[in-house]
Sequence to fold (288 residues):
Amino acid sequence: MSNAPNQELQVIDFHIHIGLREHFNPSILRLFGMSNPALQEQISEFMKPENIVSMLDNYGVSRAVVLAEDSPKVTGVVPNEFVAEFCSHYPDRLIPYASVDPTENPNPAETLEQAVTGLGMRGLKLYPSYQYFYPNAYQENPQMKKLRKLYECSVRLGIPVMFHTGTSVFPGARLKYSNPLFLDDLAVDFPDMKIIMAHGGRGPWFNTAFYIARMHSNVFIDISGLPPKNLLRYFPKLETISEKVLFGSDWPDTLNIGANIEAVKNLAISDRAKTQILGTNAAKILGI
Ligand SMILES: [Zn+2]
Fold:
């Protein structure tokens, strides 16, 4: 296994987290520590743009999507401002995605607009199981009409929206909100919105996520948080949706991004599919 950057193969990690100790709730820090023990003690010291970029260099990763997190009820708050400033040191390498809690925030569309036009952020991450909302709640819940405005805003700004889907180990997460089936409604109602199902419906809904990605040209799966060696068990027909699948690590919730890249390279799928999953699909979404 080589850590040298691979000239031919572009690898983009579509899903990493950053944050300082004070951003995360204590139970989350404990779980980060179980995945990544060396990081736990010195998380705030390590979280510097140059350290992240040199880690990406070691693994041959050209770019990473860096996620903010506005989930005060469960995991914590990694502010948009923090992530935008962090990424601004390496604008060609680190791509900041905003987060907004559509339940707590009275005007999430306005927050998103400010994050994109004011802070230069390039996507939106929503965490339904930590923020406690059904992604399609704009249809029936009068209090969640603001969700429709949020999605309309993302379409107008031309930014993708990533949703956490499937299981989570974080205490307080409510699984019912993270069923990818709700995203089918969004794919129909907002055909111009690029929707990314993070973790591919992990656990109970791999099949649901697969069929939704296959049905809708605007829906993608990111494989973060899944052991890549098992991908063909979760998605036996992975090859048929290879243009809809994005590599992601979920670092620091994984120890070694390089091992995950190697595991994708070792899958029994075509070289074309591996190239798409590891980088070219992401490059298209990012407009590179
Ligand atoms: Zn994640």
Observations:
- Confidence is low (pLDDT under 50) at residues 1-7.
- Residues 124 and 161 are 5 Å apart (CA to CA).
- The two ends are 28 Å apart (CA to CA).
- The domain at 12-286 is CATH 3.20.20.140 (TIM Barrel).
